[in-house]
Amino acid sequence: xxxxxxxxxxxxxxxxxxxxxxxxxxxxxxxxxxxxxxxxxxxxxxxxxxxxxxxxxxxxxxxxxxxxxxxxxxxxxxxxxxxxxxxxxxxxxxxxxxxxxxxxxxxxxxxxxxxxxxxxxxxxxxxxxxxxxxxxxxxxxxxxxxxxxxxxxxxxxxxxxxxxxxxxxxxxxxxxxxxxxxxxxxxxxxx
Amino acid sequence: xxxxxxxxxxxxxxxxxxxxxxxxxxxxxxxxxxxxxxxxxxxxxxxxxxxxxxxxxxxxxxxxxxxxxxxxxxxxxxxxxxxxxxxxxxxxxxxxxxxxxxxxxxxxxxxxxxxxxxxxxxxxxxxxxxxxxxxxxxxxxxxxxxxxxxxxxxxxxxxxxxxxxxxxxxxxxxxxxxxxxxxxxxxxxxxxxxxxxxxxxxxxxxxxxxxxxxxxxxxxxxxxxxxxxxxxxxxxxxxxxxxxxxxxxxxxxxxxxxxxxxxxxxxxxxxxxxxxxxxxxxxxxxxxxxxxxxxxxxxxxxxxxxxxxxxxxxxxxxxxxxxxxxxxxxxxxxxxxxxxxxxxxxxxxxxxxxxxxxxxxxxxxxxxxxxxxxxxxxxxxxxxxxxxxxxxxxxxxxxxxxxxxxxxxxxxxxxxxxxxxxxxxxxxxxxxxxxxxxxxxxxxxxxxxxxxxxxxxxxxxxxxxxxxxxxxxxxxxxxxxxxxxxxxxxxxxxxxxxxxxxxxxxxxxxxxxxxxxxxxxxxxxxxxxxxxxxxxxxxxxxxxxxxxxxxxxxxxxxxxxxxxxxxxxxxxxxxxxxxxxxxxxxxxxxx
Lengths: 191, 591
Prior knowledge:
The complex is a heterodimer. Chain A is of the alpha/beta class. In chain A, 40% of the residues lie in helices and 23% in strands. Helix content of chain B is 36%, strand content 18%. At the A-B interface, helix 1, strand 2, helix 2, helix 3 and helix 4 of A face helix 7, strand 8, helix 10, helix 13 and strand 20 of B.
């Protein structure tokens, strides 16, 4: 059975690296894997998403609306936007971070204060303060790997040798930080 | 060895394995990474051309000289390259030649979603359409072999999802291919009318031969299921279809799509009761199937625009909308792309947008974002290089009608080199009086930082002659040329005032590097205060008027608790635009 993982966020949050490590790990574990990303204009502060699908034989690289097994959002508003993609009994992980869009900065729209409440009216979300946790272990930028850890735990992929995958994809000076971040992420969603 | 690759990486890999030694391209989403990856192979000479026509012609030259060559472009780039391409089809190749087009169903980063399969048909060029990354490798390799066997260039037609999706590929060794000998052969390579008439006869014959080959191509294959439903699909739609219709349905997967295999299609359609044609954009396959007198379900059911993803197909076939989690959509806020913190376009457009009674003729690049809030500083955008020529036409029309409205044209450095030069020659020659702004951010920004004739470096990172835009426009005959720092708002205003008062054409070059660029040693020497400072708000002076926020910088936000504006230290690069906008002098340099 093909599984579908959707990572969403804002340009610059590190969704691409997280999904790269994820897909390499899945491939090493023997799964067929496909991943789809939209580049281009979305890099400039727009919404970004990476779609990852794995299983014995994957057909479409694109996840259908209402069919994602897990949605991991690096930002609150993007979690709400991605609800269209989540399965009814799917898992939602939300990084409790608010990034104002340009329309909010210029005052044309205001960022609603009850985004998490709106989400939790419909879905039981796992809210994680990945950015805060990353700061605790030494670098805010490791939030993406903490969120990768939440995917690994939620999808039951702990048996894969993630340390080896991180070694192949992360610069040596950031390796220990990211190994730690991955474990922090796994712990953050442990029941 | 197994590897996860995007389709773009895989096209480059296929060219590498096929012994290709020459490649040229102009950057354009979603095709850019093809040449970027080709240039990483030491065995391949790869270059950025100023535009797709030049890239195509260079690749044709390498092929005529006997070398296997590749040219890649986004779909609209093929419009620029179409002139040489149509005649190239008549001539046939010496070394194998592949033309890659990356189409954009859904228009994620494009101005239209034209279906370039129509080009293959119109130009009579053989075409392959890969569905995933492994097929990108396999088809590129086959294309070179068939190109030389059938004496024809090949088009590889990609789409965004094939270009930018990753799937697993098997890497093989490169096969070194020595160049074929070049001999004088005007009957093949000089397309004079008398020669072209002979070549056209050969071209029509070649298409018949290729049509027969298409029937037995391994890229066109039937996969028979147990059910009554049959699906004909090409490209990524094949996988979308399999996702929806599963193993029970039968499939005719078409990979060799010009010429299409009429016999195979007839055979397939006889075996199934109902035929769906799944293809994005135009009814290219569908029209061919209907021409054969076969009834099918195509664009009467499926949309002729956008992506034909599994959810779209499912909704069309079942007539039911997917059950989604309902939520209050009014809580959603937009998140459109914006100019980055420190973007040198900000200062220019912030001031230009405030001018009354001008028409701003824009172009293709990051700066097209100036059309939206908070700048609303763009009134038209068509295609690469059009700003200057479209502006000249509009200015002439206003002048002829006695309307006192000035036209300001805006385009980037790379876009100017692409096709803006010709337009500016027209402006001078035909005595227009437009104000032409060239946003020289020292790189091709939008597509992710490729070098261009103005940067002083080649695609391979070698130093080369740096073409200075100010020298070039003066040589064309522009008498009024101003090179300014766009982060200096007073300089922007003063220069605009000067140029708008002129009765002759002028050029303003806003020269400041893209904030995301990897700065060259020349950049560091020329721009002394290059993003090495930060700005901060003095909370005692800030009155919370939010004027600075209208400059549209993502590094700033209004803190509701303190009723003051805050600058995000992690993002600010000290361009000082906000400091010049602040009426209270509350923004200054961080110590």
